[in-house]
Every structure is written in C-alpha cells, then in structure tokens.
Amino acid sequence: MNSTPHQPASYMDEHFVAPAAEDELFEELQDSPPKRKFRLSPAGKIGVSIVAFWLLIALFGPFLAPYGENDLPFPDDYSEFQAPRPGAWLGTDFSDRDILSRLMFGASRTIGISIFATLLAYMVGVALGIGAAVSGPRVDMVLSRINDAFLSLPTIMLGLVVVAAVGSSIPILIVTAGLVYATVVYRLARAIGVEIMVMDFVEAARLRGENTFWLVWREIWPNAAMPLISDFGLRLIYVILFISSLSFLGLGVQPPRADWGSMVRENLGAFQSYGGSVIPVVAPAVAIATLTIAINLIVDDISAFSGGKLSGRI
Amino acid sequence: MFTLILKRMAIGFVTICAVSIIIFLGTKVLPGDAAQIRLGQEATPENLAALRERLGLDLPMWQQYWNWLNAFVHGDLGKSLAGDAPVNELIADRYKNTLIVSVLTAAVGVPISLILGITAAMFPGSSYDRVLTLVTVSLVAAPEFFTATLLVLIFVFWLGIGNAVVIGSIDGKSFWELIQHFALPIGVMCLIVASQLIRMTRAAVLNVMSSPYIEMAILKGLSRQRIILRHAVPNAVGPIVNIIALNLAYLVTGVIVVEIFFAYSGLATLIVQGVQTRDFVVVQAVGMLFCAAYVVLMLIADIAAILSNPRLRHPK
C-alpha cells in the first residue's frame, strides 16, 4: 500500500453519497472546503460521446439493423467481401452478409457480455475481498493465497482452460470472464478493506459493540464504494479485450452469431483475397478499439479527479 | 539478500505447483475422460475399462496428477487425443516460430521502447512527449488484433510491402532474413510491448527525477541531458529491468493472437486447436509451458527488483 490510509473528513464528504441526515451534518461544518466538481476534459467529453453512441447501438442496434444478422442483402448477387454500396453501407462479409447489421448485433453481444461479466466480477470480488478483510487473518490468508495462484496465470490461459473443459456459450463466457477478473477485483477490494479496517472510526464502531454486518455496511462500504466504482471502467476495458480475444481465437461467441471479436476472425480472409473489401475486418476491430479507448479517456478523467491511478494503490 | 532471493524462488516454485494443479483439475471437471474421447462410438464398458487402466485413469486423482507431473518434468508430455501423436513431436514442430518471434520482439522492441521512454522523460510535456503518450495510451487500450489490422492496412494495402499471412519455412534463414520473414508479427508484438514499456520507463525515470539528489544536480547547474543520462537513468535501471520482464510476460496473450492473425503455426495455434477439439492433453502440456514461462519471467522481474535495490543488496 503506497498511499496513506488516513483521509480527512472532507475526502469522504465529497466522495460518497451519505444518507440525508449525515449530509446535512457535513454542510453545517464551517471549515469544510468548497466541493470540487467533477469536470470532464475535452478528451473525456469525446470519450463519453463515443461510449454513449456504442451503448445506444448495443441497446437498440438489433431493432434498427437493416437486415437480420444472417440475412443476405443481395440474395441474387452473391459474392464475398462486396464493397459498400446502397443497401449495404459497409459492404458484405465472407458469406455475403451485411456488415452494418452484424456490427449492430455484435455490439449488443460484445458490450452486453462484457458488462454482465464485469458486474459478476465485482459482486464476487467485492464480497470475497471485503469478507477477507473483515473475517480475520486466517480466512484472509487462505483466500489470498488461492487468489494469488489464479493471478499468476495469464488471464487468456485461464480462459482457454475453462473453454477446453466446458465448451463455449454466452453464459459460460460471462461466468468465465467474471470469475477470471474477480481475482483482480478481490485484490483491490481486499486492499481497500484492510486499509479501512485499521482506521479509528472502525475501531470506535467495534468498541460500541456493532456487529460485523453493520461494520461492513455502514463503515467500510461507504468508504470503499467510490474507489471501487471508479475502477469499474478500467476493469470493463480488460473484460472487453478478454472477451474479444477469446472470440477472435474462435473460442468465444460461436458462429453464426455476430460478435466483434469473432467478426474480425471470420473475415480475415479479406486480407488474403486481394481486391475484396477490407471493411469486414477493419470495422469490428475499429469498433472495439474506439470503445475501449473511449472508456480509457473517461477513466483517465475519473482517476485524475479521485487522485491518481487506483492500480497504484495495490 | 540471498535469503530474500531464495524465498522469492521458493514462492515461484510453489506458484508453479499451484498453477499445475489448476491446469490439471481445470481439464478434469467435466464428465468424459481421455478413454471415452479416444474410443468415441466404439466404447464398450470392457474396452473403456481396459483403456482407462492402460492410461492410468482408474487411479485416484492425486496419483493421476502425480504421474502427469512426473512425466511432464521428465519431458514426456503425453499423447494427443486426436491422432495419438506424442505432444513432444507436435511441440518440436512448432516451438521455433513462437520462440523466434518472441526473442526477436524482445531484441528489437525493448531497446527502441527504452530509448523512446527515456527521451520522453527528458522532455516531459513537450509535443514529442504528448504525441508519444497519446499513441501509447491508445495502443494499450486497443485489442491486439486492432494493432495487427492497422499494420496490415498500412504496410500491405497502402505501401504494398509484405504479406498479410506469414508463409514459407524458416529453415536456413539468417537473422536478417528471419526479421523480414516475421516482419509484421514482430512489428505488432513490438507495438504491444512498447506501448506499456514506454509509459512505464518514462514513469520510472520521472520517479527518480523527483528525488532530492536530482534537485541537487539541477541546482549545481548540470545540463538536463547529463542529469538524466548520468544521474537518473542508472538509478532507474532496476525498476526498468523489472518492467521489461513484466512486459515480456504479458506477451503471452499477444503471441497467441498474433499467431492466429498471421496464420502461421506455433505453440499458440497448437493450444487453440487443442481447445477447439477438446484435446486436453495438448491443452495441459502447452498451457503448462506458457504458464511456466510466465511465472519464470515474473520471478525474474521480482529478483531484478531485489538486485537493483541497494538497500536490499547490502543489508545492514
């Protein structure tokens, strides 16, 4: 732990949403510094608009898509990797399906799976991490050593072993990515939990005779929530990259379903057959890159606001 | 210091054991074992039992694990479930490509990244530094196959150099010809490594730059160049070696994606095929090799960090 665990009260009042009664209490304090407002940098604003754009596509894309994900826009004129033209604004893929439609279907799959997996990683990681921090050295020791063993594997290898063992489907992908990244969330949550556990107000609550549930819910969680939530974006980036890489390797979302990673893989032939359109490979790759880079821009703003990279805290 | 290093190596050893258990059990969770997969439709209870006995699958789990580990340590990686080929032969055919690309990436990518990172730290806030930061931040967040797509577009489609697939044999090629042969895969891997390495090197040098003795050097009126190269960089060497080992470990993911993208056979394509055909003997063996390489590189990173810290090197 690099940073000092002790934060003044002002840190808390600007970082977490306290229950109404406590909020009023803070406002009565004369010496509380003026609240800092969270402002987005120009780059951050670009990031927010790109992420918002992709979220809208993910939510409504499947309804707005001009064709079904496996429909041929030009059934009478079959040829692979057609250049963009009216009716198929991004051209067609290796089996003449509409790229634009597949991109829109793929958006909801790639983004949906990633968000659910990250949420799962947070639920498991935070529950175990905070649990390890409050339940004493022995539980902490066991959980942390097991976690270390998983952390010492490259994430993609964990993914490969799981897919080799149980095959690939969307629920399995969500659970796999969720559990793989729960290890990282666990480490962060445990570090933050341990940091808070040694603070005076926790000691005071203990001496008052509060039970463990109260400690976690009223003392630890309000202080741990903000750092954990601001790390969510970074974790989401890694999960998107993980899911896309698995799909790219042909081990994630299975054809004929569209997903950005598998779209890159299945259309790689466009790079080898000269003359055809290369958009089928470029479009999904650019889609993932714009999404993850845009999230990164927002993450940079958040971490600048909350004082440095969170990864530096563990 | 030696006890510290020995302790760290012991932890590394325990980690590799734990990793081997995870990989072994990971491929055992589902019903259906090697005997069933091999016999397929022809499975009768009798020949299933016979094959299980021959493969040692009737033994208790810990004994199976022990036999597997024992054989692995002695260089026998088992027989592939598909086609019965020994995994050793499968690996012997392919490991060269993976190794050559990794080594060449380290040989080309690391020095360039170090130079870029240190020069960026020499002029923090300059437009050179800002462009470099923008590029590296974008590359870190983008998937590996995006970087590969970008390079193929630029070199193959725009400039008309090279090929989007790596074809041909590597036998009898000189160092320079090998670099040309694997130019695009190495380029992609270098960019993946460089994006992290440049940022971390820059941060490591700037970190040293904030220490009091550097302030002293500035007050003495030394030139910025001399301060960085003579005073700051020597003290940043330890962190930088640590960073290099860490980033080479991260290459494990990169090498898998790159081999698939450029469609040449290597260890990564072998394990991906193994996963697709559920050939878990191959997955266990190659997975174990990758993870061992990863753990060893992490170990080197830690030991480099210990060795480079004078306070740990010369304990009171």
Low-confidence stretches of chain B: none
Helix/strand order of chain A, N-terminal first: HHHHHHHHHHHHH
What's the CATH H-level homologous superfamily of chain A? MetI-like
Tally of discrete structural domains of chain A: 1
Gap from first CA to last CA of chain A = 6 Å
Q: What fold name goes in the CATH topology slot of chain A?
A: MetI-like fold
Instruction: Tell me the number of strands of chain B.
Output: 0
CATH topology of the domain at 92-277 in chain B: MetI-like fold
Main beta sheet of chain A, described?
none
Largest interface (CB within 8 Å) is between: A-B, 44 and 50 residues
Q: Report the helical percentage of chain A.
A: 55-70%
The CATH class of the domain at 92-277 in chain B is: Mainly Alpha
Low-confidence stretches of chain A: 1-20, 309-314
Please identify the top-level CATH class of chain A.
Mainly Alpha
Distance between the termini of chain B: 11 Å
Structural class of chain B: mainly alpha
Q: Which band does the percent of strand residues of chain B land in?
A: under 5%
Protein described:
The complex is a heterodimer of chains A (314) and B (316). With 314 residues, chain A is an all-alpha fold. In chain A, 68% of the residues lie in helices and 0% in strands. Chain A has 13 helices and no strands. In chain A, helix 6 packs across helix 7 (170-197) and helix 10 (232-248) runs antiparallel to helix 13 (279-305). Chain B is built from 14 helices and no strands. Chain B has 316 residues and is mainly α. In chain B, 37% of the residues are buried. Chain B has a domain at 92-277: MetI-like (MetI-like fold). The interface between A and B is large, with 44 and 50 residues.
Summarize the structure.
The complex is a heterodimer of chains A (314) and B (316). Chain A is mainly alpha-helical.
Task: Give me some keywords for this one.
heterodimer; A: 314 residues; mainly alpha; MetI-like fold; 13 helices; elongated; disordered N terminus; disordered C terminus; B: 316 residues
